[in-house]
Hints:
By secondary structure, the protein is of the alpha/beta class. The protein has helices spanning about 20-35, 60-75, 185-190, 210-225, 275-280, 305-310, 330-355, 370-385, 405-420, 430-440, 445-470, 480-485, 505-515, 520-530, 550-555, 560-570, 575-585, 590-610, 610-615, 640-650; strands at about 5-10, 40-45, 85-95, 95-105, 110-115, 140, 150-155, 160, 170-175, 195-200, 225-230, 250, 255-260, 265-270, 295-300, 360-365, 395, 420-425, 470-475, 495. The longest helix has 26 residues, at about 330-355.
Amino acid sequence: MKHGFIKVAAVTPDVRVADCGFNKEKIIEAMQECAAAQVKIAVFPELCLTGYTCGDLFLQDILLRKAKEALEDIIEAGKALDMLVLVGLPFLYHGNLYNVAAASFGGRLLGLVPKKNIPSYAEFYEGRHFTEGPAGYELVNWTQKGQEDIPVPFGTDILLECIGMPGLRIGVEICEDIWVPEPPSIRHALAGATVICNLSASDETTGKDSYRRELVKGQSAKLICGYIYAAAGEGESTTDLVFGGQSMITENGSILAEAKRFSNGTVISELDLQKLVNDRRRMTGFQGNAAKDYYIARFSWRPSKKEESLRPLPEISLTRSFERLPFVPGIKADRDKRCEEITNIQAMGLKKRLAHTGCKGAVIGVSGGLDSTLALLVTCKAFDLLGLPRERILAVTMPCFGTTDRTYQNAVDLAGELHVTLREIPIREAVTQHFQDIGQDMSCHDVTYENGQARERTQVLMDLANQTGGLVIGTGDMSELALGWATYNGDHMSMYGVNASVPKTLVRYLVLYFAETAESQELADVLFDVLDTPVSPELLPPEHGEIAQKTEDIVGPYELHDFFLYYVMRYGFEPGKIYRLACLAFAGEYEPETIYRWLVSFYKRFFAQQYKRSCIPDGPKVGSVALSPRGDWRMPSDASVRIWLKELEEISVQS
């Protein structure tokens, strides 16, 4: 609903084979429970009104009649529930029996979608009873408890569309349909379906659960959709088979909720339609007008009166979680694998640049901080790949007014442990002379005082590169670029930026990975101390020998900014939604007022500092979010931030 979230459910009810009355009551009970939980789409298993395992009882007229009567009662019960319901039943049409999914809403049958692929192999013999669902659609007459016949679409090419819920278009397939080489859901997605509902009765055999899980996850990823998979469970006949009720809700390759097998029940989660629609519109493979051949059955959760329909969508409670560090895998094994992959990408990018330019050396400024440490480690890896001696890497430490003994010593020790060439060039006198030349008061610790040091360091590195025939390696990371926390033509500039698309929160874990896999304990000790050092540009004089200028005190916590950056860049979410997600993700760590303050700051800095990103050096993309003006992010340097700040002004800050 609000912010594109919609609560959905996959239900495995208790069933009795061939007892339509019992099954109907259990389905209605589950519908009412789902409605109480704010569910808007409830999906039930294949043939759940009769039971999937009826066998030749499907040829009995009374069973078919009772199934239709049960469906009529379910449709009637749904009048007051404001919920789209999909249930499975056998449906007789023109002398053929079809395995169908019936979609109903608000006391109205929206459509009957037949199963396209009828399995008749191994333990399955559906072809004995059911006919393959016809392509396209046609209108059939449906009588609802003595009312006049109404035309209802019947066929595989039916989509359900919600009026007033942008992006919500629902396609339906049934069990075997997902297991075949060309599932109907592919056509549904190309026709605009963002949610696929699968009514299933897949039996259990050893290891099948893992395959089924990957199948559903993979289909939701391939189609960039939400996938609601409702599986038959206990109550089906065990004459030859057992059904485990492995219901799932997935979203673009991620499992949001999964039922415990061999235990009937309901799984509920929220699909994020805005996220799905945003990803879809970035993909050229989903463009076109494939929906022209479909019947679009429309319904609405909003009141029908025009003035009522203008009311904002309600805000549903969210049960799904949001990672505080979206760039960093939460499981260590996954994180280590990601770190290895990223450092390989960084090193391979630098390797190619060195080989192409013919440079046999590299020049890098080392400060004893996280970014320059990672850049130096990656440079060493690139040199190892090229078979070049590390002595050709010139690590330059340039102490000035803000340098502390701790960071200086870490820079020196790091160069020694990595066996690169270290050169110390103090820049205090050069910067002092420059300030005298331009009339800068040395006691005025303003932006000129800070940036003068940064630009002097860059000048030294560039000139050393000319002297040695080397390449200046950039150390700045993506979070700094997003906030503009870089001195224009200072640390903003290099000849190749290996960290350009690595966010600050990930930089820390990459250095940690190097520490945990270090060549020696001495190197590990240095890296762990770098990790323990506060992030700082060290441009202001120390206080009592300690770092006086802590970056996060000035621009805000990087974990917040990286969270904001991820959802702004990856999904294009509006400020109100990002604030809502951040409050959920960082509950107990930051107060809502703090989150709000830094979110406002993020937008202001992100827009104001685009001009720096418009001319950054080359550097390898490592993840789904990047700020290169040549690839992922093309933004005018003078774009206005007004509408984003306007929405933030309208937000009611939580207390």
